[in-house]
Amino acid sequence: MALRTLTGEKLEAERARLAAMREYEDTYAACTAICGIDEAGRGPLAGPVVAGAVILPVDCEILFLNDSKKLSEKRREALFTEIKEKAVAWSVGIVGPDVIDEINILQATYEAMRQAIAGLSVQPDLLLNDAVTIPGVAINQVPIIKGDAKSVSIAAASILAKVTRDHMMVEYDTLFPEYGFAKHKGYGTAAHIAALKEFGPTPIHRRSFIKNFV
């Protein structure tokens, strides 16, 4: 798919960009199973927080791999499929709004990450994390600020997390069509806040996030 869309100099430039994003994977090349970790959904007013965990093959090439926020929805969907096909192992962890309200969003994010790691079919020997150090995990970790733009493994995890969560929010949209979840994915847009004030909270709203609006 990706190779057919790039030729010549553009293909070389894309491969060079990806090579630069392998800096951390190359630095820790002695590790046999490097796992990227990232999350999606820390900021929304509704829905879960989702974490992705991905172990890519050493020689894996996935063109256009990048921070999920820098990609179009169409590109993310294509990469979502390609990552799952090519990964040595992948997993997602999902923590819902009730737990987010109970333990706070940071702790819920850590829990989603731990779930994602536990769900891997291959035990990683190193975690490359986007910005955080996950408590309660007995695996060596390297937190990388803006890691989803600096590591192919973290970028892959960010796409898995983002697309998984987006799919869930589209499903929630069929249950609660008046809120527009398919469009804003639970983030605090003007339209979402207006719907929240008009219709009140749904079971997927984070009560600790919406107290200023209802």
TrEMBL record:
Instruction: Please give the Pfam families that the UniProt record associates with this protein.
Output: RNase_HII
Q: Does the keyword Hydrolase apply?
A: yes
Q: Which reaction does it catalyse?
A: Endonucleolytic cleavage to 5'-phosphomonoester
One function term, GO molecular function aspect: RNA-DNA hybrid ribonuclease activity
What does the record's cofactor remark say about binding? Manganese or magnesium. Binds 1 divalent metal ion per monomer in the absence of substrate. May bind a second metal ion after substrate binding.
Q: Where in the cell is it found?
A: Cytoplasm
- EC number per UniProt: 3.1.26.4
Task: Give the record's family classification.
Answer: Belongs to the RNase HII family.
Q: What is this protein called?
A: Ribonuclease HII
Q: Coding gene?
A: rnhB
